[in-house]
């Protein structure tokens, strides 16, 4: 780990060229900043605006409550809670807070705290008042309903009773007095007061409980009651819960005090609101008038209350964004301040942070400004620390390179300053995508859609987009590259929505004779030089198309794959050179290069030779028998002079490179380690500068236990992985062939089976339907699903086949304390 | 073969011109220029490989197009 200091030296030493942007992550340094307490807040806010420092938590052992600024954080949390409350209230009232920042006036943190408290108190009071008013308003509404409905009951009951009375009277007249029950009549006559004792309760009960309510009442009073119910047409707002509920108006008649208490209890249990009612008609009218008067009165009062609340909320909404950002800023500043350790004198705070080397002057400038602005008597002290820790990885990307870097990062963050595959990914990723997505018609569609995104870049970047849209927008330049390469490969494949064009001259093939009779049996013959650019259009639709294209695309996949894997191995060389690790060059890079190229490099060579000579040799046979019987004569499969010797040499090289990869590195590492140990015990005696350096260098390794077996097993795994990998990875590149084949077949199916078929009917209506279905199929299947699958396969080829040749990806990302990033965070 | 070499030279020239144009119009300091050059060179190599593979494959064909019955 002590290598990191040497790295920066090595970087300064330079080489042939300047360091390449993006190839290596930014040089980082650990800095210590000592800030006087009085200017700490302002300093941190300036540094946060700069956003180039990643503070280390120096109080990791302390709990959140023990930290210096715990109190301020609590205050911020409280304010954030109030702001959330306002937000909720605004959402309830349907007031949108303006996204735009209103006039940027400076507000004091303490003043804001007081103001927020006041506003909250006011709002809560207004709300509770409103709630009370609303509740009594709802109660009155229910009462009104009861009055209306119950009056109906009584009216209908009275009229039916009167009718009954008349009937009874008529009956009595006609029937004589022989069977008249004397006693009851007597009772009726003598004690009319007992009848009047019938009491009643009226009110509202929720509709779904009405049936059980009735049953319970019936049981409780043993049937000595009479219930009348009527459904209310519209759902009523329940005064207690404030929700809309369908309700029934009921009137229960009972006799006796005990029954009354029982009924009241049941009413309570069922949440039935009772309202007083009288059977006196005059009183009823009076009550109705009274209640409706009260209702209108309450209505105006609540309206005024709501208006008042809306006014308060509107005022809040204007300033809400500003307050919210301020609170978020303060909270993150105090949070960062809590990571700083307090000096023993309690007069200054000590911060340790990672920062890019290039930012030193900016940081010092910010520190000076902060000291000046806060009228501090002492400035902050800035010093660079030397450390053995591995620094964070920081790439400065722009809108063009960031999606590609994102692809690499989602596999693993690069180790500090290791070669970044992101550089080549910018080109090879869209290229491999396009190999699978080769159709210049589809490429043009992609190009147009991404150009729309790019042209409206300014507008779109300021507004919130959906998840998928956001992803497309972030990758707009990647899609642009993908589209451009698709157009190129589409021209090479000679496909435009699967239709070939003779853009680059005439086809190389023609009929054998003028009658062209055997064109469908024997085939055409080549009459001029090969088609100059891309695939000859004559192949399209011919019977031998697939066998030709399969052979071409399969071989192309292998050639491209071997090229990309070689690039990956060469990057491992650059890594080894950068970290001046000679072991990796001699015992990893070189044998790997030899192994891959003696097998698959040789295969690529054979492919090219076969194409150039037009030989009939069977490459499978050559490759397989190179292993099975290397000494046997090749016979008709001979492609090169002395091929047998070449193959023997290559095979030997491949076999040698396996132990070459496996054994020397761990053995030499052990030797180096032993030497260092001896160096420590003896060289101190000489006491010259060189030995001191060794001594220092040694310190960093002192506590590292050297486990030979562990390192050997590690190397063994690496070797096996590489050897098996070089076979399986080469095979894995065949996905380029499979996907491009699938793409071209699908698009030709859509073209022939939809567009041409519909055209054949000679019917404008069918043609239109055919075109519409064709467009939907093209967009849905080819432009969306095929793009996704080609994207994923290109992703895999980079992550696995390309990056495992050199990429360690065990670093951690630089995440600076930045106030600018706060706004994007969702709370 | 002559055609192959000529076109290869054209690709090379196109890459060279693109490099010069990038250096002239997107001059953002030595480090960034090196990145741009790397990108241009990679692009040129990729495009050239693609073309060369397809061209060479058609140079001495082992199978010839056999037209379908319908045409």
Automatic annotation (TrEMBL), chain A:
What does the entry give for GO biological process? Answer: vacuolar acidification
- Membrane topology reported for the UniProt record: Multi-pass membrane protein
Coarse class of the primary localization is membrane
Q: Which InterPro entries match?
A: V-ATPase_116kDa_su (IPR002490), V-type_ATPase_116kDa_su_euka (IPR026028)
Q: Which GO terms describe its cellular component?
A: vacuolar proton-transporting V-type ATPase, V0 domain
Task: Describe its function.
Answer: Essential component of the vacuolar proton pump (V-ATPase), a multimeric enzyme that catalyzes the translocation of protons across the membranes. Required for assembly and activity of the V-ATPase.
Cellular localisation: Membrane
**Which keywords belong to this entry?**
Coiled coil, Hydrogen ion transport, Ion transport, Membrane, Transmembrane, Transmembrane helix, Transport
- This chain's protein is named V-type proton ATPase subunit a
Q: Which organism is it from?
A: Canna indica
Known PANTHER family for this protein? V-TYPE PROTON ATPASE SUBUNIT A, VACUOLAR PROTON ATPASES
One example of the protein's molecular function in GO is: proton-transporting ATPase activity, rotational mechanism
Coiled coil ranges (UniProt) are 109-136
Can you tell me which family this protein belongs to?
Belongs to the V-ATPase 116 kDa subunit family.
Transmembrane annotation, as ranges: 431-454, 474-493, 556-574, 586-609, 645-663, 764-785
From TrEMBL, chain B:
Q: How does it sit in the membrane?
A: Multi-pass membrane protein
**Transmembrane stretches, start-end:** 6-27, 34-57
Q: What is its main location?
A: membrane
Q: Give the GO molecular function terms.
A: proton-transporting ATPase activity, rotational mechanism
Give the domain of life. Answer: Eukaryota
Q: Name one GO cellular component term.
A: proton-transporting V-type ATPase, V0 domain
Q: Which residues form a coiled coil?
A: none
Q: Where in the cell is it found?
A: Endomembrane system
> What keywords is this UniProt entry annotated with?
Hydrogen ion transport, Ion transport, Membrane, Transmembrane, Transmembrane helix, Transport
Span of the secretion signal? none
- Return the similarity comment: Belongs to the V-ATPase e1/e2 subunit family.
- What name has this protein been given in UniProt? V-type proton ATPase subunit e1-like
């Amino acid at each position: 780990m002590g290598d990191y200091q040497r790295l920066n030296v090595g970087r300064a030493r330079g080489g042939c060229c300047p360091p390449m942007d993006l190839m290596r992550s930014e040089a980082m340094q650990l800095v210590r900043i000592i800030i006087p307490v009085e200017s700490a807040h302002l300093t941190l806010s300036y540094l946060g605006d700069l956003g180039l420092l990643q503070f280390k938590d120096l109080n990791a052992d302390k709990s959140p409550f023990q930290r210096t600024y715990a109190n301020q954080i609590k205050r911020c949390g409280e304010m954030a809670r109030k702001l959330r409350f306002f937000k909720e209230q605004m959402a309830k009232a349907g007031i949108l807070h303006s996204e735009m920042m209103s006039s940027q006036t400076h507000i004091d943190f303490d003043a804001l705290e007081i103001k927020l408290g006041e506003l909250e108190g006011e709002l809560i009071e207004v709300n509770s008042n409103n709630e009370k008013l609303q509740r009594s308003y709802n109660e009155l509404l229910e009462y009104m309903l009861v009055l209306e409905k119950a009056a109906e009951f009584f009216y209908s009951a009275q009229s039916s009773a009167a009718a009954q009375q008349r009937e009874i009277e008529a009956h009595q007249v006609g029937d004589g007095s022989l069977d008249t029950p004397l006693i009851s009549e007597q009772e009726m006559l003598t004690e009319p007061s007992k009848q009047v004792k019938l009491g009643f309760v009226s009110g509202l009960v929720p509709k779904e409980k009405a049936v059980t309510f009735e049953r319970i009442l019936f049981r409780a009073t043993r049937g000595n009651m009479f219930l009348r119910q009527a459904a209310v047409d519209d759902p009523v707002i329940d005064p207690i819960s404030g929700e809309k509920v369908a309700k029934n108006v009921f009137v229960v008649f009972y006799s006796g005090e005990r029954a009354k208490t029982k009924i009241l209890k049941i009413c309570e249990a069922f949440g039935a609101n009772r309202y007083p009612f009288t059977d006196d008609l005059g009183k009823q009218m009076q009550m109705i008038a009274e209640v409706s008067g009260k209702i209108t009165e309450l209505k105006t009062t609540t309206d005024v209350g709501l208006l008042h609340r809306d006014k308060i909320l509107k005022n809040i909404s204007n300033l809400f964004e500003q307050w919210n950002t301020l609170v978020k800023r303060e909270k993150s500043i105090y949070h960062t301040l809590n990571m700083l350790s307090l000096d023993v004198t309690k007069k200054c705070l000590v911060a340790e942070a990672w920062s890019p080397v290039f930012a030193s002057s900016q940081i010092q400038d910010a520190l000076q400004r902060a000291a000046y602005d806060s009228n501090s008597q002492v400035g902050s002290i800035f010093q660079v620390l030397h450390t053995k820790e591995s620094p964070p990885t920081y790439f400065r990307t722009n809108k063009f390179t960031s999606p590609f870097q994102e692809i690499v990062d989602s596999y693993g963050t690069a180790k500090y300053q290791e070669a970044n595959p992101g550089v080549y990914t910018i080109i090879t990723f869209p290229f491999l995508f396009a190999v699978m997505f080769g159709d210049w018609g589809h490429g043009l569609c992609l190009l147009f859609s991404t150009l729309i995104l790019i042209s409206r870049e300014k507008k779109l970047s300021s507004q919130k987009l959906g998840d998928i849209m956001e992803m497309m927008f972030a990758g707009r330049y990647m899609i642009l590259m993908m589209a451009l390469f698709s157009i190129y490969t589409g021209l090479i494949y000679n496909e435009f929505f699967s239709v070939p064009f003779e853009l680059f001259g005439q086809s190389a093939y023609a009929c054998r004779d003028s009658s062209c009779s055997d064109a469908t049996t024997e085939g055409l013959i080549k009459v001029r030089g090969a088609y100059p650019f891309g695939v000859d259009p004559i192949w399209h639709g011919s019977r031998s198309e697939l066998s030709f294209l399969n052979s071409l695309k399969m071989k192309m996949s292998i050639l491209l794959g071997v090229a990309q894997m070689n690039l990956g191995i060469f990057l491992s060389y650059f890594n080894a050179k950068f970290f001046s690790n000679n072991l990796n060059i001699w015992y990893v890079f070189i044998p790997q290069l030899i192994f891959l190229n003696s097998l698959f490099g040789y295969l690529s060579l054979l492919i090219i030779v076969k194409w150039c000579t037009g030989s009939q040799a069977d490459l499978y046979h050559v490759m397989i028998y190179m292993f099975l019987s290397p000494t046997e004569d090749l016979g008709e499969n001979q492609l090169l002079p002395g091929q047998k010797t070449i193959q023997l040499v290559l095979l030997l090289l491949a076999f040698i490179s396996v132990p070459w990869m496996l054994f020397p590195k761990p053995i030499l590492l052990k030797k180096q380690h032993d030497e260092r140990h001896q160096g420590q015990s003896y060289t101190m005696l000489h006491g010259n500068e060189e030995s001191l350096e060794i001594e220092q260098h040694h310190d960093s390794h002192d506590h590292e236990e050297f486990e030979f077996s562990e390192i050997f097993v590690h190397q063994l795994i690496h070797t096996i992985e590489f050897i098996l990998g070089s076979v399986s990875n080469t095979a894995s590149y065949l996905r380029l062939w499979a996907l491009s084949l699938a793409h071209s077949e699908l698009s030709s199916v859509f073209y022939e089976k939809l567009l041409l078929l519909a055209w054949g009917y000679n019917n404008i209506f069918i043609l239109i339907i055919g075109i519409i279905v064709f467009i939907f199929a093209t967009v849905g299947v080819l432009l969306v699903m095929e793009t996704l699958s080609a994207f994923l396969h290109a992703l895999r080829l980079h992550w696995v086949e390309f990056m495992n040749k050199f990429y360690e990806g065990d670093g951690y990302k630089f995440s600076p304390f930045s106030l600018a990033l706060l706004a994007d965070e969702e709370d | 073969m002559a055609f192959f070499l000529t076109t290869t030279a054209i690709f090379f020239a196109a890459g060279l011109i693109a490099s010069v144009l990038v250096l002239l119009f997107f001059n953002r300091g030595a480090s960034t220029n090196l990145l741009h050059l790397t990108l241009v060179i990679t692009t040129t190599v990729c495009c050239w490989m693609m073309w060369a593979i397809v061209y060479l494959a058609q140079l001495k064909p082992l199978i010839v197009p056999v037209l379908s019955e319908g045409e």
